[in-house]
Amino acid sequence: MSPTGKRGSRRISVFDTTLRDGEQAPGNAMSAQTKLELALAIEALGVDVIEVGFPNSSPSDLAALRLVSEALTTARFCSLARANRADIEAAVTAGGTERHQVEIMVTGSELHMEHKRGITRAENLAETEFAIGLARSLGVRDISLGLEDASRGSDDLLRALIETGLSEGATTVVLADTTGHMVPAEFGDMTAKVRSWIPSDVVLSVHCHDDMGLSLANALAAVEAGADEVQATVAGIGERAGNTPLEELATVLTYKGHLYDAYTTLDTTGLYEVFQTLSRKIGLAPPRNKAVFGDNVFSTLAGIHQAGMLRNPITYEYVEPERFGRERKILVGRHSGRAVLRHVFDELGLPWDQELGQKLYEEHIASRSDGDFISVAELKHVLSTTVAAAI
């Protein structure tokens, strides 16, 4: 029996920023060709928008935007620009305007205005007005107003920036918890407030960081509060502690989407293959217990758990491996029990022998050293001749 819950009624747009924010972390650099390969793989998942990079920051990102803009057929693509002419013109020159979202990053907090930019509120609003207007004049129809550090900005500043951006033609507003400092109750409240400020046809997108381990929880709180879109990355890679993990967002909305009245149309069966490609390209090795992608998440070694799972996997498994391109693994180590031996006997079509079973348990299970384990298939191969001969 599948544990999948009822689907919510609201389709959430999925914005993948693996190639932009994901690349910003040390060790995650990607060539233009790598970005193209990953973009095509991510598009095949059914993602709505793929952020390719920051074209005015490097020739590589400029080349990547050109390549990806010509290759994608279903997903829209996005490029990042600051609120200045050079960045916006570079984005449009490389990516054109068809199916191209330009996300214009503006200064969303007084803290950043003072300590990062050294600009006044008036200058900030003027930049925003100029940048959105310029993008519109260049033919960009899909303009995103990215409010950097919005979670530390005052309501007064945020509302003024949003009103300015929308008046110039912005079609999406992005709330960024840039430092990952909010908890779900705070971020949900903020999202609901901003949702009440903007028209229903303006997309409200959220961008969460994982500095306190809450990027997914914050994104879900935002969805519950009315966000239309979540920005995420494969395996949660990104600046510092990373971003909302795409695979975890998909998992929650697959099984618990009814609680948020939300769903995505992602092909979750392809997620692990995309992760493997990313892992090969940037040398990414997640913790063994990483949800969805970790080596251990669909494996079991403990005898009590194995006894239940060999009867019915649902006894100790809620998330189904096949939904996410994974396989279930029963492993044999010193914590395993006799149930796994009985299973091998059954697989070999042999009657269970208590005395022989105890001997094999001591020889192949109890005596294993810490960290030493084999698969059931390997145990079956080892015992296929010795057990038959003994019986």
Could you give a quick summary of the protein structure above?
It comes from Lentzea fradiae. The chain has 391 residues and is of the alpha/beta class.
Task: Give a written overview of the molecule.
- It is an enzyme of class 2 (transferase).
- Residues 12-272 form the Pyruvate carboxyltransferase domain.
- Belongs to the alpha-IPM synthase/homocitrate synthase family. LeuA type 1 subfamily.
- It holds the Pfam family HMGL-like.
- Pathway: Amino-acid biosynthesis; L-leucine biosynthesis; L-leucine from 3-methyl-2-oxobutanoate: step 1/4.
- By secondary structure, this protein is α/β, with parallel strands linked by helices.
- The chain folds into 2 domains: 10-282, Aldolase class I (TIM Barrel, Alpha-Beta Barrel); 299-390, no CATH class.
- The protein is 45% helix and 15% strand.
- The chain contains 14 helices and 13 strands.
- It has helices spanning 32-44, 59-71, 85-95, 110-117, 121-137, 155-168, 184-197, 215-224, 246-260, 271-282, 303-311, 338-348, 354-366, 376-390; strands spanning 10-11, 13-16, 49-53, 76-82, 100-107, 142-148, 172-177, 203-208, 229-232, 262-263, 299-300, 329-332, 374-375.
- The strands form 3 sheets. Strands 2-3-4-5-6-7-8-9 form an 8-stranded parallel barrel, surrounded by 8 helices.
- β8, α8 and β9 (229-232) form a beta-alpha-beta unit.
- The longest helix is centred in the N-terminal third of the chain and has 17 residues, at 121-137.
- The protein is elongated.
- The model has no long low-confidence stretch (mean pLDDT 94).
